[in-house]
Write a structure and sequence with these properties.
Length: 566
């Protein structure tokens, strides 16, 4: 694995390299001093953390320099696109805290793109090719060997015009013909070897309905859409570097020498986000959803924005992570642990501290009067005193974590063990007196005695004991279901693995605990998204949680305790 990029290539002014370009262009007065970007997702899936990186760039740079960023739905392939995705995309961008100028669609420009394609045919710069895609691929050549011209390359213009019309009539089968730009079959840049610019898809489009059957290809639609819309900086990821000359070529044709000054969109590229232990390909994410290998696009293990949201990430945590990794011009693989570190830092500042016992065992305080209760004060967030306090009920019988008791403990064990003292958080110091076991030797109940003069906050109560345990009262707690999530994949770089990605899923990525107890305060706090179960980790309510059946998702543990399984 490559080292995470700590190097964000920022200048003294705190600008990343794209922002520096934008600042320079604005200073030079390019595009009349305008700044316009776009975020151009294809609505064929939900947005993921990689898209968040692009969103922070596209919207962020516009915000920073007083420009506009439009949301452009790159909807040129009706086979895979759907309004469900469009709505999810809007929701996720808004959740991340960004505002678009306009919502645009590549399909808004289908008429103009069609006219442009017709013009190219008339100018002898495009032709209809009736070969199969396999034949066309075979003729492409290699970067060092020129390609072979299609037998249709020099067909009469009138013929291409008539066939192009027929491509859009709905009467031709898909794949029977394509429109290609006539550029240069020997160009060292493969994208110039007569790229396909229109193909037939006999499917209705979620916006244009049955109007079109000939649909433009990405390379033909994207740059032109930028131009029609007035985009100045078309920011994308590094895999589009080799497409850039073609992007410029089409714009040059489109402009026809008009307005040649400098009023044109320019493409700039940054490194895409790759994260360990997950995949970013929408095709693979869709397969996980469709094959029910996860619980939908918003499964908390998914790298999707909605998955992270359901997992308990705040938008600020996602943005913090994006700024931690920065933007560069070389590809890398970022460590999933960095995303978790960003979440921890963010949640430490905002999470409501509460008590929950995930693997309960009963602790009986034998010298505490039966039937007696006390309301203990619990601080909501020590990082932010303004968040105040709430109370938690203390009684004779408590649930504590099984792992907080050991009958024969080593010297450095600072939790409950016979003869030793610990503090019960926000309450008293107790001394363990023993336990009761069942026939299988399992601990059923633990016994202790409390020191009535040691109540937290009482004067002179701060006698030093090493360990502090969390607890909830047996009679005053609520049952809960808690879902613990781990890495979705068990290999570091599933995208680079030859095996089928389904076989690389981590079988232990979800552990459901159904026998947990939480303090009742949690039943009244469902508006609070960010929780810390003290001593355990950060949690949030799952979308299925109700006051009658509380369900929590673990966002991230308190410390990075994770290590790859050997
Ligand atoms: P896929 O190929 O899996 O469908 P995509 O990259 O084509 O994904 P788009 O919806 O076309 O997905 O992407 C919209 C924008 O988000 C593009 O500008 C793209 O460069 C950017 N983007 C997508 N994935 C990443 C990533 N992992 N890191 C950074 N930017 C990304
Ligand atoms: Mg794409």
């Amino acid at each position: 694995m490559q080292k995470p990029e700590n190097e964000t290539k920022e200048t003294k002014a705190g600008l990343n390299f794209i922002e520096q370009i934008v600042a320079g262009d604005l200073q030079e007065g390019k595009n009349g001093g305008r700044l316009q970007t776009r975020f151009p997702p294809e609505p064929n899936g939900y947005l993921h953390i990689g898209h968040a990186k692009a969103i922070c760039m596209d919207f962020g740079v516009a915000e920073k320099f007083g420009g506009v960023c439009n949301l452009r739905l790159d909807d040129t392939n009706p086979q895979k696109e759907d309004t469900e995705y469009v709505n999810a995309i809007k929701e996720d961008i808004t959740w991340l805290g960004f505002k678009w100028g306009k919502i645009c669609h590549a399909s808004d420009y289908f008429p103009q793109l069609w006219d442009f394609a017709v013009r190219l045919i008339k100018e002898g710069k495009a032709y209809v090719d009736e070969q199969t895609s396999e034949q066309i691929a075979q003729q492409k050549g290699t970067p060092t060997q020129p390609g072979t011209a299609s037998p249709y390359r020099d067909r009469p213009i009138e013929e291409s015009l008539a066939l192009f019309e027929r491509m859009n009539s709905g009467e031709l089968p898909e794949g029977s013909m394509v429109l290609r730009a006539k550029i240069d079959m020997a160009n060292p840049n493969m994208h110039f070897r007569d790229p396909v610019i229109y193909r037939i898809i006999n499917k209705d489009h979620h916006i244009t309905g049955n109007k079109w059957r000939a649909y433009p290809m990405y390379d033909f639609a994207h740059g032109q859409s930028d131009y029609f819309e007035g985009v100045t900086h078309s920011i994308c990821t590094l895999e589009f570097v080799p497409h850039r000359p073609l992007y410029d070529w089409f714009i040059d044709q489109l402009k026809e020498g008009k307005d040649l000054a400098d009023n044109r969109p320019r493409q700039y590229e940054f490194n895409r986000l790759n994260l360990t232990y997950t995949v970013m390909s929408k095709r693979k994410l869709l397969a996980l959803v469709q094959e029910h290998l996860v619980d939908g696009w918003d499964d908390p293990r998914m790298p999707t924005i909605c998955g992270l949201r359901r997992r308990g990430y705040s938008p600020e945590a996602v943005r913090k992570f994006i700024s931690m990794i920065g933007y560069t011009k070389f590809d890398a693989l970022n460590d999933y642990a960095m995303l978790e570190a960003a979440a921890r830092e963010d949640l430490n500042a905002r999470a409501l501290r509460v008590s929950a016992v995930l693997h309960p065992v009963k602790l009986v305080i034998t010298n505490y009067p039966e039937g007696q209760t006390e309301e203990m004060e619990a601080v909501n967030n020590p990082e932010n005193p303004a968040d105040g306090t709430h109370t938690i009920t203390f009684s004779r019988e408590l649930w504590i974590e099984q792992e907080d008791f050991m009958e024969d403990a080593p010297k450095k064990y600072f939790r409950l063990t016979p003869g030793k003292e610990v503090r019960l958080k926000n309450a008293y110091i107790v001394k363990c007196t023993g336990c009761k076991k069942n026939d299988n030797g399992e601990v059923e109940e633990i016994y202790c005695e409390y020191d009535p003069d040691s109540r937290s906050g009482m004067e002179g109560a701060n006698r030093k004991v090493k360990g502090t345990l969390h607890w909830v009262s047996v009679a005053h707690s609520l049952p809960a279901e808690v879902r613990l999530y781990d890495r979705l994949f068990s290999v570091e770089n599933p995208a680079a693995d030859e095996r089928d990605f389904r076989d690389l899923l981590n079988p232990g990525s979800l552990e459901v605990l159904t026998n947990c107890y939480v303090e009742p305060y949690l039943a009244t706090q469902q508006a609070t998204n960010y929780l810390q179960f003290q001593r355990i980790g950060y949690f949030t309510y799952d979308k299925t949680s109700t006051p009658d059946h509380l369900v929590f998702n673990r966002t991230v543990g308190l410390k990075d305790g994770w290590s790859p399984k050997k």
